[in-house]
Every structure is written in structure tokens, then in C-alpha cells.
Amino acid sequence: MNPNHDSLVGHDGEMSMPRAYSMDLRERVVAAVNDEGMSRHEAAHRFGVAVSTAIKWVTRTKETGSPAPKRMGGYKPRVLSGSNRDWLLERTQTPFTLRGLVRELGERNVRVDYRSVWRFVHSEGLSFKKNDNGERTGPARCCASSRAVAQISRQARPGTPRFHR
């Protein structure tokens, strides 16, 4: 086992996400530097943390008054909200494709990717994949293979309700 990754290995031997150091440890390292006059290198060695970690904690304490960790992760507001959401809800009243919506939003100077449009459509419960009978709406192009697949699927499940979960 790689000694540099010991902190990432859980009790069951599986790799896990790293956790922030405890506030107690952070405060003891900072106190060793500020109150006891230790160097950051000495404090890091004494408490078994990386020198760069001790330096960051002492610096953060000087800047903010606390060695507390910064927020992990982040929140990114959704682009498809507000007026963009209103436009999309109105636009999806007529048949659409996800790629078409991405293109139309791009024309409106809204930068989104396929996945974010899919997430919006899915969360709003919007879909034009099936007709009222729960059957395929028809092939995108005029080809027999799609009609054959639809016919086979209808024959495979006679008498079953035609709704989709």
C-alpha cells in the first residue's frame, strides 16, 4: 500500500474521500507557532501534517482569525432559471429536440450543454417521445426498420397497458 494514500483508505480497505482535519488539530498547530514560538516546519513535524498545511493554517488564521477550512465543493446556480426557464417552458409547448433547444438557447446567448438541457426537461417532466397510445411517435426518417421495431414491440405485449413509467 502506498504510504502517501493511507489517509484515503477506509476501515474496509476501500478508497474513500479525504476529510478536512479537525479544528482541534488546526488550533494546536497554530498555537504551537503563535504561542510557543515554533517554526511552521517544527509544528508540522510535531503534529504529523505537511509543512504546506501548517503554513496555510497559520496564514489563514492571520487573515481571517480562524484556521477553519474553506467550504468544500461549491454551488453553481442553474443557468436555466428565471427568464430562461420561462422561455423554455413556453418553447417546449411545441415539439422539440434537446439538441435543437441547445442550439436555440445558444442563439439567445445562453451557454448550456446537452446535459443541462436534458436535466431541465427531465425535472420539469417534459417529453414528446411517445404519443397518447404510449407507442412510438414514428421514425425520425422514413425507414421500415423503425416501423418493424414498433410492430414487434406491440405484438410482444398484447393486452398490456400502454403507459410508461
Poorly predicted runs are: 1-5
Q: Tell me the distance between the termini.
A: 46 Å
Number of helices: 7
Question: Helical proportion?
Answer: 40-55%
Integer-rounded radius of gyration: 29 Å
Order of helices and strands: HHHHHHH
Walk me through what this model shows.
The chain is mostly helical. The chain is 46% helix and 0% strand. The protein has seven helices and no strands. α1 (23-34) packs antiparallel against α2, α1 packs across α3 (51-64) and α5 (98-107) crosses α6 (114-123). The radius of gyration is 29 Å and the shape is elongated. The two termini are 46 Å apart. Residues 1-5 have low confidence and may be disordered.
Task: State the main characteristics.
165 residues, mainly alpha, 46% helix, 0% strand, elongated
Topology, element by element:
Blueprint lengths: L22 H12 L5 H8 L3 H14 L18 H9 L6 H10 L6 H10 L20 H13 L9
Helix pairs in contact: 1-2, 1-3, 2-3, 5-6
Briefly characterize the structure:
The protein is mainly alpha-helical and 165 residues long.
